[in-house]
Amino acid sequence: MGEEIIINPTIEVEEDLVQKAKEHVNIERQVIVHVVLRTNIAWWQLRIWPSTFLIPKEGGGKSKLLNADKIPFYPQWLHIFGSSHRFTLIFEALPQDCSVFDLIEEIPQQGGFEAKGIQRNQSDVYHVEIRD
User: What is the pLDDT of residue 84?
Assistant: First the structure.
């Protein structure tokens, strides 16, 4: 019997293709923030501006708001009867080295949402409470 010959072929992948694959992986990762907004007002209006971000404390780029559930985007309003409302925000991925971040709604008036000092976890799913 002859010896078995093992061939390990060299595969070359274009760097451009590798970079596009890395970008796609980052796009697929998302951060989900479940929010409970509480107020002492019995009737109120609510909306979220597209200029809402997750901002890493360590620096780095802001993660953009991609989608929202149970809260309309500016300029639409949601009329609330009761002292609390739950909604979900979906953001772009945070930088890999981020361990603490803020949720900030950057708007040209008072009353933007803020939740500061959110500790990063492995699931990138968060529950925050905001009091008005």
Answer: 94
Task: Confirm whether 3 is domain-assigned.
Answer: no
> Is there a domain that residue 14 lies in?
no
Mean pLDDT of 81-90: 96
Q: What is the pTM of this model?
A: 0.78
Query: In whole angstroms, what separates CA 117 from the centre of its chain?
Result: 15
Beta strand 30-38 pairing with 125-131: parallel
Segments forming the whole domain that contains residue 106: 31-131
Distance between CA atoms of residues 65 and 89, nearest Å: 7
Count of domains observed in the chain: 1
Q: In the prediction, which pLDDT does 6 show? A: 65
